[in-house]
Each structure stands twice: as C-alpha cells, then as structure tokens.
What we know:
Elements: H1 9-16, H2 46-49, E1 52-55, H3 59-71, E2 76-79, H4 82-91, E3 96-99, H5 108-116, E4 126-130, H6 135-144, E5 148-151, H7 156-167
Parallel strand pairs: 1-2, 1-3, 3-4, 4-5
Helix pairs in contact: 4-5
Amino acid sequence: DVLSLPPSTPQLEKALGFSATEPLPEAPEGSDLPTPSPGAGGAGSEASRQPILIADDAPVIRVGLKHILKEMDLPVLEADNGNEAYRLSLATPPRLLLTDLVMPGMDGFSLISRFRGTPSNAKTPIIVISSYGDRARLVKALRSGANDFIVKPFRPEVVKEKVRRHLGDEGAEQEA
Length: 176
C-alpha cells in the first residue's frame, strides 16, 4: 500500500515509541564509536568502527534512526540529502547505508546507483526507508542496488532486525 502523504510527526513518534522532537543527549567527543567486546563479531575490526550512514531529508526520521542505532551501539553519520550522503560515503565509507528515496538534490535512486558505482561501497548493504512502499518503487530501488526496504512509519524492532541481518557476522551487539 502507498501512503498518500508522508507520515506526520505524531504518527512517527507513535511508531518509534519516543518523542522524535526531543534532541538526543550529546555524547562526549569520540563516543560515537562502539567499544568492541570480546567475542563480538570481529572485535576491534576495521568494519566494527565504520559508521552507519543515514540519508533522509526529514530531521525527525534521522533522529529516530540515530536513536535506534545508538541503542545498538553503532556509530552514525547523517546526511539530509543524497549529495551530502554521497560525499560523506567517499570520505568515510560506511558499513551500511539507510536511505530515503525522495530527497532534494540527488534522490535516493541516484544515490544508490552512484554509491554502488564506488569501489569502496560496491558491496556495502543498502536499506531503503521510504513512505512510498508501492511495488514499482520497491522494484526500482532493488534494481538500483538496494538490498532491502522498510516502509515508514517503521517500528524500531524492524529496523534493528534488518540492520543486524545485513551486518551479518560483524553485526551489532544484542541488547541485554
């Protein structure tokens, strides 16, 4: 089904289970990086220090996704459009890309294609998170190079499960 409009802030807050308008507490400098624990897939490996890149023009979505990923002890980079996300991915190749499809400037489809064309990102998992869950956009996103799709509004446990699945053996640590 296609949502006729992007979800409202109250709908997103209900789906996320917390207020998306409140800022996340600031962490000390350098604390975005997870502290590897013994036995956690490749503890101390280069991949475990790579950030998850979020590309979405809606601040409420970026805050919600960042909150979810922080709960998973994952470092995060944020971009509010495809151009910025692509530049960030060149400077710091991410471990996983979470992207919206409809953004100003470079849209998600173009971002996925350019991201896939970069050798350092060619095999990086991409999860599309979009309000538009129709079959045509899903197929176009997958053909562009996406690995998975989540329809907004999303539930935090769905995001966590898909992120863990795509991070594979070096996935995020399970919460206690």
